[in-house]
Records
---
Amino acid sequence: MGISRGALLTDQYQLTMAQLYFRHGLHDRDVRFEHFFRRYPDYGEHEAGYAINAGWGWLGRWADRARFGEEEQAALRSHRVEGHRLFSDDFVDWLGGLSWDALRYESVPEGRVVHANVPITVVEGPLAAAQILETPLLNHLNFHTLIATKASRVVEATRGGAVLEFGLRRAPDEGGIAATRAALIGGASASSNVGISHEMGVLPQGTHAHSMVQVFMTLGEGELGAFRAYADMYPDDCILLVDTIDTLESGMPNAITVFEELKRKGHRPIGVRLDSGDLAHLAVQASQMLDRAGFEEVHIVLSSSLDELTIFQILTQIADEAPRYGADPDRVIGRLLYGVGTRMATSDGKPYLDGVYKLVAVSDEGEWRPAIKVSDTPTKIVNPGRKRVRRFYDRRGLATVDLMSLHDETLEFPLEVLHHHEFGVTRVLAEPDSASEELLEVMSLGAPVDDPAAVGEARKRRIADLERLDPGVKRLVNPHVYHVSVTRRLADLKAKLIAETT
């Protein structure tokens, strides 16, 4: 793809602004930008009450190779407007020496639960470099966080079941690779995407397609012949897709026949896959057929346009329907696995995260001056200045508020805190049971943060954070609103700057 993936993965106005700063001698002035998202994903019929941070590893991978080399510089030198050069030689030469290591970074670690309107990434350092970084930062972090959030909700909906991600075929081009990585951070157990799974240190998994059965049927071997061929090739990794002809009348009986043959040879079949029809009803029936045949440990993999709400509805139906057939619903649900593709890899219902990257402070002769953007829309007015973000936990051990304060503030409890943009809404925060700093310093922006061990740690962080999140906030539909607050001192500073500006 040439230069499109490197340093020129940015918007034109980032470069034109950078040249203006360069011409006015402002390019090396220290500034502070903050990345956050304004609203949780709203999927239409349901909505998120939290998000899962992801993408830092791939941003680091980009920065490790993104330089304004000869090819990039030649492209910029060729840019003309009405016959005149848009970018001057001295500016392009300066870009040739730009290093992302000149910037300082703070970030909420990947895998952590994050909330709307709270900074999750901070960039400080020379203005021009920080400005150019905006587009690639948002490009990487917003999409990863969007998909990791969707994956986490899907996993939570399964009530402890394992989720296989297989959205590569319908994902947006190479965005499918990013979606796989984000889904693994978001809690998916594995993926069918071979390359990125190996990079992340997770063994890829999969079943087979209807086409395999169709081939054997067309050649006269039938569904049973297809199943036998697959089992012979993969006797210890045998999951059979049973709905090509008739799930209960053909697919399941043929699968059980093959499983019995495998068992006699000393192998343990893994499962059957249901990809069409009334999945809840078929799961109940398939579970009973497997149990009667003595295959109590064989899994049932559900697929076909699954998402978190569909899974919730399927499990609700199983709980109601299974007893009518003398089946234990917990037994049926406990053997289910879930293959989730398109709707997770594309974040169906909400295909973007409205993450933004806003200037909040500018250094002037060694002093940090708070910066503000004023808008008629209150939620678009930034909280100015250099800030700290702390998460406080109550006596239950659950997160109760994310609090933004000015960088040099000392907090004393009980503490009055205010809504992050509706400053008339206040509450008193009692002495917390514990607290955590959410923004951690990142020493460099580079590829080593994306090794398999880093992804594994991110997966653990998600589990730990969700255990400390109120169940109401995790609700699939109409989740409880998590508190995001600011201190009185920060609110007063914001009000002062608004008054001075308007």
Note: The radius of gyration is 27 Å.
---
Amino acid sequence: MNLDLSEYMGAYIDGSRENLDTMDRMLLSLEQNPANTDAVEEIFRAAHTLKGMSATMGFEKIAHLTHEMENILDKLRSHKMEVSAAVIDLIFETFDVLRTLVNDSIESTDSNIDLSEISAKLSTMANGGAAPAASSSPRAAASAAAPAKKSAAKAAPGIDLSDMGMSEFELSSLDEAGDDGKHAYMLHVSLVADCLLKGPRIFMVLRTLDDLQCDIVKSNPDVKDLENEKFDRTFKMVIISDKQPEQIRDGIESISEIETVEVTDISSAGTGGGQPAAPPPEPARPAAPAASAPPPAPRAQAAPAPAPAAAPVHAEYNEPAGAAPQAAAPQTAQSAGEPGQAAANEEEDKTKEVIELVQLVTFTMAGETYALEIQQVEAIINLVPITRVPKAPNHIDGVINLRGEIVPVINTRRRLRLTEIERRASDQIIILSFEDEKVKAGFLVDSVQEVIRLPESAIEPPSRVSESVDVEYLRGVGKIENHIIILLNANRIVFGKTPENS
């Protein structure tokens, strides 16, 4: 799908320049000290980030070249290749081409760079040879090494990639994954029918994939559309990872409001033969179904009821061990043949139905876990440039442009009188919407964690939570097992007052 480049170009320019500067700095450090493994890691991360940004913006030359550069860097960081003068020279040469390409993308110019020669050098080096001299047709030589594998990947049995709209470059990346011992997977995820705020769930899926070091090759719908909730409740992704399919599936299943997760190996080296990966062996569960099909996802029991019962709420904090038995316990069908027990269970279920649950988005700051009510949360975004506003209140860091709308950003640490730190790339902004006041505001936080449910009865008054945090900005304190969650009063933080009905 086509992106409105003007909306994201500012962030792309800032990010690409920052990553180029990091690569330049670390390359000089690596040249001076070839044993500096930290420099290799920094260069790899910068190249990986630049690749993702460029692919999103449609700058395929940059994405292609950084991908080939990554292959070399990955072998260096995993000690499959030694850092030599020839390797460093080739990375410097690649970096010079990258800088020119990025400048072209920023200035809307075209230096007419032919990538065939540098691509051939990188490919030869990655395959254990010395970088060749210029060739009349180096790209043909580079691609001739594995023609059979490309055909195998395109023709993976049982998998139809036609609806993914993958380019030749994206298809070739599936083949190259096998060279590094990685697998290409088709990921198919469905959210529950009554999912609240799909955007935060997408954010958590993307964060889980990032934590598992999965590269997203293609997404349908596009990732930006997923983040903006422009989809029904299912989506597919082609990803590359060195993790096992059950690791990926379990990681995504651990997110609330996820109904089903399918991970299918589509790489030529995969043992799945284009079939969904079998679930890992599990301990016997009470009254587990005897069918041969894999058991439903642990989170699926939250789907049918708009107001879930207390047991699934508890299960969200006991994962993975113990979660399934807890969730299965309330089922009255377990007690078939015992009328007295069945009646007791039915009465217990009726009691649980009236438990009022509060759904929260949790995040960390200064070593504590805080939360905001999800009803007010409109979106969760990564840190973007914040423009300072003269004479703004001290706790307002500035404003951001959110899809054409100017939104003020509150420095949440400063507002709560917590110890302040410099902004980091990992910081995030939670966008809240205040319907009565017809305004939006962003809360700058360290790291968003998850969406949880908490019984209203488990929330206590905010007395002496922290000596530094003003109680007037707190709604209450929740406790799950031995974990404290501090609920913030968003209205008082933004407006310095609390609505009459709160």
Note: The first helix runs from residue 5 to 32.
---
Amino acid sequence: MNTMQFPINAHRVVQMNDAVYALGRSSSNGTLQLIVRGNSTGFHGEQQDDVLLCPLDAENARTLQERLPWLRPQPLGSRLSFGFGDRIGLATPGHIDALRSADPAGRVAPIFAQQSVRENQRLNRTPQEVMTAAVWSLFAEDWRLPWGADADHVKEPEHLAPYVAAGYTFYTIDPSDHVDNAAHTDDPAVLRSKCEALPWDILETTYLSLCEEYCGRTIVAEKTMLHFDEETLLRALAKYGRALAHTLRIAAALRIALGGTSFDLEMSVDETDTPTSAHEHFFIANELLRRGIPLVSLAPRFVGKFQKGVDYMGNLAEFEAELMRHVAVMRHFDCYKLSVHTGSDKFSIYPILARCAGENVHIKTAGTSYLEALRVAALRAPDLFRQMLETGRTCYEKDKKTYFLDCRPERVPPASTLDDADLPNLLDQFDARQLLHVTFGSILTTHGTALRNLLATYPNDYRSALRDHFARHIQPFVQA
């Protein structure tokens, strides 16, 4: 079978079994298409001579995944990993460039298809659309190492079905709405009353059994000693008991939906008001693992502020001291990793994370790739960027409600007052960066088509921006 001669300009030619696959641009309108020569069962498109010209849609992506196993996501376990969110659907080539540049040995396991339920709702995207965009980019870039797909911030069992149908392998369960932050400071009598009202049928235990399990127990983990008395148990149970029950409920539904297919599971309690103590971390992990939950990562609420699009805000020495306690608990169980949510742009703590936790870390990013797209717009299409900035200013109060932010929008100058040369600098200014970050839904709903057209016109600008930006994220972990 001749893999070189195709009726249109072809690249990324792959021969597998009884078919040849390539990408090429239509001679009529320049649209990128999949070209299939040989066995084309399951694909749809236009027959031209001896090849089938197929649109890059979900159906053809799923069929190609069946043919080429490296295009299917898989569970990644507790190895060092990095989540690349892509709100626009064009960032994966730049993410791959960053990995190949900063991590040529392939130590970092990437999650390329990652989108939260909230993000999909704001962007009117589906999990399948996110998966499809990643698959076509992976084929185009010839990525053949293991990769994952994250159904991020799943809050209810009914959120699972479209992610399961699209083949996601990593499920981040977010029970933060069920965390009782007041329990952090409640007195013991209030804690006891709250514990009595927990859904014990779902927890499948009793308070007496938990007292026997924990009270008077001292856990020695590396150089950390955790002693549980009854008040410590009461506080952990009142604060996280309902969150545990909700996680168990979603995990049970997930197992049924996947029908025995293996998966990675993360529990995330990072979007809460109060930090997770080492005792509470131990309690959460112990209760999940002794129920057979396939926990591969846990995202506690760390000390300090993890806000969108900006560096860590807090005392670095305090962060390191508390991180070491969390690392000690993690290594006591020795089967999962620590997950850092809102993990992009936290350059001051990456060396600390790498030094303390080694390769047992998952860094989750989302909106920083979108901000790099806005940087391209600021450089290449100043008028479009001005329109997006004004949309962000108008929609900020509405869009910020689900985020913890220190942004002061009054510090963001109106776009009309800025010269073209000043616009890219806004992507490095604290308040403008946060404002643009959290108004992504409004900006992309209004200007998404124009922005995608711009990025398609200047694809190398976006790729190089992402490569440099994410190489800076990745290097501290592979150099440690």
Note: The longest strand covers residues 109-116.
---
Amino acid sequence: MNKEPTLVIMAAGTGSRFGGLKQIEPVDEQGHIIIDFSLYDAFRAGFRKVVFVIKKEIESDFIQCIGKRMEKWFEVSYEYQDLAMLPDGYTIPTGRSKPWGTGHAVASAREAVKGPFAVINADDFYGPTAFKSIYDFLASNKDENLYAMVGYRLCNTVTENGSVARGICEVKDGILLNITEHTKIFKDGSDAKFTEDNETFTHISGSTIVSMNLWGFTARMMDELWNRFPAFLDKNLPVNPLKCEYFLPYVVNEQIEEKCASVRVLPCEEAWYGVTYKEDLASIKNAIQAMKNQGIYTEELWK
């Protein structure tokens, strides 16, 4: 049984987000993109195995742009998120092109991951302390029913340039009680507000803990993701065949409710950065340069 933690990176949407991999925007003068910083931080934290979950259509571009460079530092493998990867007896609904969601993306890597693993999004900047805390948890955790999530403060994860989607967490004594996905959260001073109907808004404190999809799981989670997928399809395909998504937090919540797993929340004071909007690019470039000025990163990573 392999106990060395693996980093699973959800990158299947990378090409579509930026209109083709070659257009991925550099975030510094040296041409680094966001995922370069995540991989650099992951390496410094202790990770040596990386699984990229990608779409087959972007494979050659992805390997050339990102994968090849990382093979020098990591044991790298590629898994494919494919609409046709369904349990026996299920077929793709006519007209569906949308991927099945983050839970399905991670389950796509189940053949490659046999031990503890962390999960991140390819296009989010998480910060070095986040990777260190999740690696240390995975390397020391002996309870197969205990998972972890790096919890960010909401005020550190919003943008001036529009709404964001976040998993709002209810936490008690460092343990996650549940996550509620909100897809339209707006910055509101040092706090935030969300809406479901674009008319009424609900205030949320900026100190609220949110999930940024930085998780630490035991190998058991791969089975949970795949085994719970049919029930999700049975419930959701009849009502929303073209758009329903099997989200990772959905599967975590189920296990919390059934009391068959618990999730430790690892607090993180890092600021999240991402390019949800083109206008976000300037702020992440400024933040990266500030971190270089502080010595957190060198001008050229890996040097």
Note: The longest strand covers residues 175-188.
